[in-house]
# Entry
Amino acid sequence: MPPYQIKFKPENCIIEADAGTSLLKAAAQAEIHIKSGCGGKGTCGACKVVVKSGDPLVLGTGNLTAEQISAGVRLACQTRIRGDLTLEVPPESRLQDHQVLMGDVQKGILPESGPDLLERFGHHSLAAKQRISLPAPTLTTNTSDWDRLNLELRWVLKAGEKPIHIPLAILKNLPEALRQANWDVSVTLTDTDSGMTVTYVEPGNDRPPYGLAIDIGTTTVVVYLINLRTGEIEDQQGSYNKQAKFGDDVISRIVYAAEETKHLEGIQHTVIETINALIDTILGRQSLTSCNISCAMVAGNTTMTQLFLGVDPRYIRLEPYIPTMTGVPSVTAQEIGLHMLPEALVHCYPAVASYVGGDIVAGTLITDLAKGEEISLFIDIGTNGEIVLGNQDWLVTCACSAGPSFEGGGITFGMRAMPGAIERVIIEPETLDVSLKVIGNSLPVGICGSGLVDCVAKLLGAGIIDRAGNFQLGHHSGSERLRAASDDKEFVLAWAEQAGGEKDVVITENDVKNIIRAKGSIYAGIRCLLKMVAVDMEMISRIVIAGGFGNYLNVHDAVQIGLLPDLEPERFEFIGNAAIKGARLALLSQNAWREAAELGRKMTYVELSVGATYMDEYVAALFLPHTDLSLFPSCQNSD
Amino acid sequence: MPPYQIKFKPENCIIEADAGTSLLKAAAQAEIHIKSGCGGKGTCGACKVVVKSGDPLVLGTGNLTAEQISAGVRLACQTRIRGDLTLEVPPESRLQDHQVLMGDVQKGILPESGPDLLERFGHHSLAAKQRISLPAPTLTTNTSDWDRLNLELRWVLKAGEKPIHIPLAILKNLPEALRQANWDVSVTLTDTDSGMTVTYVEPGNDRPPYGLAIDIGTTTVVVYLINLRTGEIEDQQGSYNKQAKFGDDVISRIVYAAEETKHLEGIQHTVIETINALIDTILGRQSLTSCNISCAMVAGNTTMTQLFLGVDPRYIRLEPYIPTMTGVPSVTAQEIGLHMLPEALVHCYPAVASYVGGDIVAGTLITDLAKGEEISLFIDIGTNGEIVLGNQDWLVTCACSAGPSFEGGGITFGMRAMPGAIERVIIEPETLDVSLKVIGNSLPVGICGSGLVDCVAKLLGAGIIDRAGNFQLGHHSGSERLRAASDDKEFVLAWAEQAGGEKDVVITENDVKNIIRAKGSIYAGIRCLLKMVAVDMEMISRIVIAGGFGNYLNVHDAVQIGLLPDLEPERFEFIGNAAIKGARLALLSQNAWREAAELGRKMTYVELSVGATYMDEYVAALFLPHTDLSLFPSCQNSD
# Structure
């Protein structure tokens, strides 16, 4: 059976695919990345495409309406090829590039290349480059090529007791490399506790060695190019994690990866491909090649790290939630196919547990949580909320399933923090008139996490919702904005004509309940950790908030809805993308990297699903701001 | 152009080969290994084949006679395929399996599994196997799979400060390996100074770990299967080194390997194939699989070691004779394709210089040369003669190009020590009647190294040759055995009818001169080392002779012709295959392996081609036994 021709509009690109291929897979083949929240199960309805010509095999239509179906709309994951096709992929079905958090310096964010931490840990990178000029051998000084180079390297690098290894591939090329360079060479080496390893021998030059700091987020991936000699970030690039086509969250990706070995290989390949595209962009821009990249440090959550290395994550999802490893073996770039020196080492931050990963350890390191006697709280809010509490003597950590609400998931007009997202809302209590602040000052097309927090606080403040999140239609019967829809109640944030779309942008009662569940989950987690170590909320000197959400969050709003503890605003700090900063620090400092490994072992993981404490706390937190108002003294007026 | 059919007789096997393929290569493809002393240059005439039908392209006929050519004889390396062919490969053109020195216990040879050395160094193998039973994880004891295993391993193996690594491939399989075995597993690990590495995790069992001791000789390859728990040799197998098809000696192999990358890869593949065939035989016989083999230790000369690892040996041959490395990086079995656990380490004995290799370091270790104050001399006689002189304080070493005479090369009826080889000769001085001792008590077809030494001594004793090796035809004109041939003088050792062949088995004047040059080269080497360190011959307490030759050598004869120093017979020891014994010892003892590395660095290599000393000594040694008879007091009667 010959392959069929599948045409995609509006690109008008054509690919060939065999009968039985899903439209989702065919689109991926065409490099058109379609959303797939449920990982191809036909339940989320995100992967809508329109069949313009041809007659594919429809296995299911999920939640499509009869109208949509008759207009040719199909679910890409539930529709298979059995002949030539022309498809249109509408914008709302596409994964789009968006504002990727690359650690930009913002209010209160730790300075990116600030000298403090690097100076304290000491600048001694995980890779080095050394120019070496050797005397040519003679009949009386006839040591072997490697002995000749090794001896000089040991001397110049003050290697002491550290062995210097040479991989077979480098050794094979050594005689020619030395002779073609007339014995004047530059040698690149990895440098870790267990020894140094030669990764490249090239004609003598004075270019610095470079390393990559890599943040693998479930949603986005960021790469920094670091000059290992100066410590400077010389370039950076971020993009979506292309794995999103296999599902939005870690759970759907684990499910997909666990189905068959080919899936696991495919999902690993996809993240490597994502990173390589970023590397290639940076290398091109900087006129460098992969031979200039001598080291990489990765920070990601436990699932992202296992998928990055191709390690099956299935037991992360199954009780009792066991990751394959927490300390991660360093691998060579060639083992996983990264565009770097083949023998260069790729290190990954250690995880603590299945749902507290290397990104959180990086954040703990970079925020100096384990220094001093004062107690600090670190919160990373994304799809999961990870929390660390402690000081120099102890560290406890947990993960709460906050759900994707703060990233726009499960919210009618939810979206990520990108141009068009409402990030700030003002509601005039009398008239219910609305003023909006939209990212990029563009037309409002949806609402992002920080906008949702703000919005719920303002809905509560204006009396539109009660403390349980129920819409109070009766209180504002005069306003057109507050209305009952077919199966829900909703408040209009922007009218269709203001939004430049066909629909009014609204927030529904159901959306508000989702936000309450999400914030309740995080607040309950904080309370559990405090109880665990018998520490009062007041004793927390410092609360550091990381992640894309944290960057745009208004602390006052967050306290009003009971997401964050009711403490003085001065105690809050925002650190932005902690993972990438931690990756850079460990790349540049062997002491920091040693400390990171130590931190990973030192953090005590609290499994919230054991015992009833968490569930009790969670139920108590399902009010705005909380059932126990004594916890939120500053909010008592709003009631 | 279709491939042509090439039939080989008497096997009657048929292979397909393209036009332009040499008959030598086609034969190799048919697994018929043809001798090729010159590495395919058409000069040695060893690769004769007979064309029975077909018309190949003849590029050259070398030293073939007109008679041979008209009888269809061709040189396989100089003849190319251009149509179907039938070829006969006569026995004399074939590489044949022969008596491979596997360290059999013989007179004076150190006992193979003798406890002495292993007890002194301590039995602590380079690989270990440990059965581990783990408690299954729960919600409250939810450490990762690798942490769980690692912790228990550290405890049971008393790993102390040593890190335990886990390669990515093993980690990927770990979750299923643990769960399918119900948490009762056997773990195989490599164990070296730089740490331990997990190489296999299998369902719990009590089988021991096995290692391989491998001797890669230029001519023969020997593999021992070692039970790493008991230290016992549980099996052994030896064969020709299939690389012989690219040339008999290291120089022709270096020339071949340096021609193009494909040649280097091919010649590496050939030795790996040789070893794998031996491993497969042993595994089959012992009902083991490659997963039972957790470590290997290789001893070979510098060229063999570089070719084994695929490292271009070209600079070994070019002045100033530089090997790529002396200390050899350990590689994984999968890097070079050996039939063992893919992640198992393969170690190679370190070399000292281009012509003093790991086999000599192994010999130095196993003979305890560097212990005590007494001065010892170690001689390994093969194609090259390598010599080590020293004691606990110093060690000097050199290599002499003895040439292949002692292995039968360049001698009219020379052959290796295999059935049919004359190994002992008695000549009745009056009648010149000859009595022979033939290996395997079969008909004499040639003469091996020890036979040649004996023969030259007896020719001298009977006055048939003078001290310069010249035949004295006039002194024995009555004997039919002593005669002038067309272009040489010769002595008949066995008449054709006794030999069961078509020709008389003879030794010629030219043969005798070759032997004199070979023995002179070795004796001159010994003298140079002694001069170098200002030590008298008499001060040598012990002379240890290794190698296939040494096993069958008569010391008295060897002194008579001036090959060995004229010292009391009690001072001589024979150690047989020192390389394989050293490989076994290092495999079983980390201390021995450390000492081997140390020895490699400690030995001072003397380049004999620098200065005039060696040439002067060589010229002086071109008499029987020597120009300076005062060096051979016991031989003065024979003059």
Summary: Chain A has a mean pLDDT of 90.
